[in-house]
Amino acid sequence: MVKAERRRLFRAIRIALLLSALLPIAAGLIYAESTYRQRVGEATEQLGRAVALASEHSLRVFEGADSTLSEISQMPTEPPGEAERSIQRMAAILASRPHMRILGVTDAGGEIKVSAPWRSSMNVSWRDYFRVQRDRGSHGSLYVGTPIIGAKDTFFSVPISRAIRNADGAFAGIAFLALDRGYIGRFFESISGPSAETVGLLSSSGVLLTEHAGAALGADYPHQLAARIRSAQHETARQGHVEIEDADGRPNIVAFKAIGDYGLYAFASLRQNTIRAAWWLEVREVLMLLALPIAGLALAAFIAERQLRSLKKLVAALASNRARYRTIFNSSPDCNFLIGRGESGDVPIFLEVNQNSQAFFGLPSDQLAGRAVNEILEPAEASFIASSFQRCIEMRDTLQREHEVGAGPKPGHWEMRMAPLPGQAGIAIGSIRNIARQKYLTSSLRELTGRLLQRQDHERRQIARDLHDSAAQNLLAASLELKLAADALSRRNGPWHEHLSRIRDFIDRTQKEIRGVSYLLHPPMLDEAGLPNALHWFVDGFQRRTNIRLELRIGHALRDLRLPAEVEMALFRVAQEALANVHRHANASTVRLSLDMDEQGMLEFRVEDDGTAAAGVGGPDPIREGVGISGMRERLMAFEGTLTFRVSGQGATLSARVPLAQQAA
């Protein structure tokens, strides 16, 4: 009876504890929900203030640009004396407005008539800021185009244009200017912060003009945001806020405001994760206070016995793991270390360093523990380790960086890996390896490869010249001599006429073959007419020789642009090797070639075939890159270029990319 009553008593106590726990749990949930809504409201209000500042600043910028365009659209472009005064006036305007890079006026065909800085005859009719003004027919309307990169200074600019019309309303050209993209971006950076992680400027069509982003936005983010803003405008007029996901799929709160009547929007966004983190810091103590008594009453009796039993095992395992860790930590050939925040929080300190530290830092490990990095290392190396630590802690992920060491006990090239220590906030584990010899060998190999390729091109050019100047000329002389002999024997009958005719045919065919080999070894059209024309010539000849259907597309921006001679030669050799591989291995019926350059100055040459060479992918004999593809890749590496080769059941694709932002004329 006593045991039964005791069990009932314990059961009643447990039920009472459970019921008493429900009240603080409900109170905690209500408190957490109300606090979170308050945080969201405050964050939305702060975003509204940030976007108001961004909109006001941007409005002043575009009103100034509008006024400038109105002024220069009235400037005369002829005769030369008047045009020269217009250019001088434009230069004076640029001097007073450093955020404007270029001013100019074009005619109806897109030819620049006057500009500052002055540019020789140049046509901009293919740019959107010209085409829109020419085609839409609205009078006096400002248009903000897609940001472009300068061909000479490689700076991003935002093109702005206004149509110029005659007295009868006919389109007569545009007045345009290039606005420094960073001018607005620097102001956006000044107003961004914890309450507005990303501040930017967006056109109604979804073109991101400039931004200061605290998180990755993603390629589709501007278009999605523009669509959401257009949809939200029906309800919120010219300003408001929407929710949208960023590149990582995390929801953002975005406040927006229209900028005048220019079809532009300033926006400011904040990740809801950031709001949630701040909210959690505020409520977690209260929730923990509510949860601790409940958890303690419910779990204390249950886990106490288990904890006591497992404590001895845990201590033994911890000692064993620590011994293994110390062995691995000290026996590694690299310099391993633990690093954490110092007392000031700005400069990290070494918590522990293995026995290889002296080769890197000049001090034994027992003199490094507990000391700040700026007390031990040179300023450059200390800054490198401190910035790496800060970035690693912020990223909460493994970080790998390299650093050129010019001073210290052992100059060289550091390769450092650093990762946050699990379960230890503000502490990271890292390792440093000196890869100076590997870097030197790689650089030497690349330099040797480049010289070998240059020597190969030189030898091809010499062989082509020798074939053209000696063998081809000798065959021509022999053909002429045979013709003279045939003419001399024309009045005599005999079998020699047919023999002489066949000999001349053999000589003519040999001349054509020598001429073809000479042009393939070094096409003179490449030096004289540029890569696009040389590709057209090569494709036409290849198509006649192989009966493979070829399609060649040259980007509009490259039709009148000469590339550096080394780049043209490298890409032409890539085309030769790629088409040779298609002919030998692909069994293709159609090959598509394209050469184009994007707005960032990245040149891309692609070769795509519909052949069956990829049928063995995943089978017993997978396709491997041979000497030809390796040679093409080595050629491109001299210009910081890359080459990729992919195969599938539909064919193969070869892509060569070369950055030309600083090389394009």
TrEMBL record:
Reply yes or no: does the keyword Nucleotide-binding apply: yes
A GO MF annotation of the entry reads: phosphorelay sensor kinase activity
Chain coiled-coil ranges: none
EC main class here is transferase
Q: Which reaction does it catalyse?
A: ATP + protein L-histidine = ADP + protein N-phospho-L-histidine
Domain of life, source organism? Bacteria
**Alphabetized UniProt keyword annotations:** ATP-binding, Kinase, Nucleotide-binding, Phosphoprotein, Transferase, Two-component regulatory system
Which Pfam families does the annotation name?
HATPase_c, HisKA_3, PAS_4
Q: Which InterPro entries match?
A: HATPase_C_sf, HATPase_dom, PAS, PAS-like_dom_sf, PAS_4, Sensor_HK_TwoCompSys, Sig_transdc_His_kin_sub3_dim/P
Its EC number(s): 2.7.13.3
Instruction: Spell out the NCBIfam families in the cross-references.
Output: sensory_box (TIGR00229)
User: PANTHER family of this UniProt entry?
Assistant: NITRATE/NITRITE SENSOR PROTEIN NARX-RELATED, NITRATE_NITRITE SENSOR PROTEIN NARQ
Task: List the protein's name.
Answer: histidine kinase
Q: Which organism is it from?
A: Bosea thiooxidans
Its taxonomic path starts at: Bacteria, Pseudomonadati, Pseudomonadota, Alphaproteobacteria, Hyphomicrobiales
